[in-house]
Automatic annotation (TrEMBL):
Protein name: Oligosaccharide flippase family protein
A Pfam family of this chain: Polysacc_synt_3
Coiled coil residues, start to end: none
Sequence similarity: Belongs to the polysaccharide synthase family.
Location in the cell: Cell membrane
Keyword Methyltransferase tagged: no
Transmembrane segments: 43-66, 98-119, 125-145, 166-199, 278-296, 330-352, 358-376, 397-418, 424-443
InterPro entries: Poly_Biosynth_Transport
Primary localization class, coarse: membrane
Alphabetically ordered keywords of this record: Cell membrane, Membrane, Transmembrane, Transmembrane helix
Membrane disposition: Multi-pass membrane protein
Length: 457
């Protein structure tokens, strides 16, 4: 009874904390949006074939891997700045955002042809190029989103996620019923970016950056200025933009390693087992981990802003460590019961909701195994945000890259025995690596020093 009382007290305390409120807005938006997406996924699962799901998996995986390093290319730095630094950095951050967006667009467009040749399906080319245009829309909202994250306005951030997901689900279901096939999934992904931009920009003006140009100053040391000036000619960016780009690039590489870790299974399953097997795996993954991964991603977004918040002039470095482990208790108390119930009830609701054809295709054991891997995935998300916020982006990159390599080797070996063995390998490697990563931080980071990688003011 005492244990239950302690758990209740812990949950109450965490829910009333800043992180708890932030996660409530983001998490509830994700859950409500996923309910709408569930209805959409039921429709497309019954209308589309595993082969179409395989093509969609390739397109969305490529998009996600390329997009991930650009998402926080400027916001990771902006969130850590004070008001004066933030206002002075807006023009430079906008330069960085557009550079990243253009590079991402060109990269995905160029990749469409070799991927189409490899999979011997020219249907990939046009959807990939059209999907790539969405990168060019992101800079219109990135500074506004960074401002909301920096001010911890998670209700607005959650609203953007919610409406984006709702419109995506409704448009996808409608277009699928109209018989648009693969376009029913691709087109909404582009259209809903306008929703995301509109929500973040609504009643959220930025300062007039042109009025600040005359007074903007930088706190570089002379040696740093010389280094930056020498690079300026090559990249066409001012010194402040290069400083933001450098910091965002380090964070982006760590995020890319996480994205590769989360998506390399699609790439390797498609490579070793073919499009039909990839379609089955893609369905099982999204059906099993859709809600929980959305919750985990919301947790990561809220946690980074939470860790970067300054609680006062006398804040000790140890408070960052305490915030990190307090947040772990919070997310595990929420995610573990949800994922456990989902895995236990899978044999009942999977055929009922999505159709018997997915059971016949062997999706059920894959669904359950991938679902169970979600039990420890929050540990990795929390560790990454902690390392970035404490100025240890390089360690974050090393750890996530190593885990990605481990996942790749596991999938390559397990694919020799089929999809179910791949899912089992993914579960076991997560159960081994994620708690080990957390234990490592517990033993080595008890007195961390928050060291910002930015000197931009």
């Amino acid at each position: 009874m005492q244990t239950l009382s302690q758990i209740k007290s812990t949950i109450t305390t965490l829910l009333s904390s800043a992180l708890g409120k932030s996660l409530f807005w983001l998490g509830s938006a994700q859950v409500l949006g996923r309910i709408v997406r569930l209805g959409s996924s039921i429709i497309i699962a019954r209308l589309l074939t595993p082969e179409i799901f395989g093509l969609v998996a390739i397109i969305l995986t490529t998009f996600e891997v390329i997009c991930t390093p650009t998402r926080r290319i400027s916001s990771a730095a902006l969130i850590q700045m004070d008001d004066a630094q933030f206002n002075n950095a807006l023009t430079s951050a906008n330069q960085v955002n557009w550079l990243a967006a253009i590079v991402a667009f060109i990269t995905m467009g160029l990749l469409s042809w070799p991927l189409a040749l490899y999979y011997q399906d020219t249907q990939l080319v046009l959807p990939m190029i059209l999907m790539a245009t969405s990168y060019l829309l992101l800079p219109f909202g990135m500074l506004y989103a960074a401002k909301n994250l920096r001010l911890n306005k998670m209700r607005v951030v959650g609203r953007a996620v919610l409406w984006q997901t709702v419109f995506d689900g409704l448009l996808t279901a409608t277009l699928a019923l109209l018989g648009l096939g693969i376009w029913a999934i691709i087109l909404p992904k582009i259209i809903v970016i306008f929703v995301w931009i509109a929500v973040h920009r609504y009643n959220n003006p930025l300062v007039d950056v042109s009025a600040l140009k005359a007074t903007a100053k930088h706190s570089f040391q002379p040696s740093e200025v010389n280094t930056v000036k020498s690079a300026k000619g090559r990249f066409g960016l001012n010194s402040q933009a290069l400083e933001i780009l450098k910091f965002g690039f380090q964070v982006g590489l760590g995020d890319l390693a996480i994205a590769m870790r989360q998506n390399i299974d699609y790439i390797l399953v498609g490579y070793f087992l073919g499009l039909e097997a990839l379609g089955i795996y893609f369905f099982a993954f999204n059906a099993s981990l859709g809600i929980s991964l959305g919750l985990i991603q919301s947790y990561g977004t809220a946690l980074y802003s939470h860790l970067c918040q300054k609680d006062g002039d006398n804040e000790q470095a140890l408070s960052l460590y305490q915030k990190y482990f307090q947040s772990l208790k919070f997310i595990m108390l929420i995610s573990v019961p949800i994922i456990t119930v989902q895995a236990l009830l899978a044999p009942l609701y999977l055929p009922l909701i999505y159709g018997q054809k997915w059971i016949d295709a062997g999706a059920l054991p894959i669904f359950i195994l991938l679902c169970l891997s979600g039990l420890v995935r929050p540990l990795g998300e929390a560790a990454s945000q902690y390392l970035i916020s404490s100025g240890q982006s390089r360690l974050n990159l090393i750890c996530n890259s190593s885990f990605t390599l481990l996942i790749a080797v596991t999938i390559a070996i397990c694919s020799l025995s089929g999809l179910t063995m791949v899912a089992l390998g993914i579960l076991l490697i997560h159960l081994l690596a994620m708690p080990s990563f957390t234990l490592y931080l517990a033993l080595t980071q008890k007195t961390p020093t928050r060291t910002s990688s930015l000197s931009t003011t």
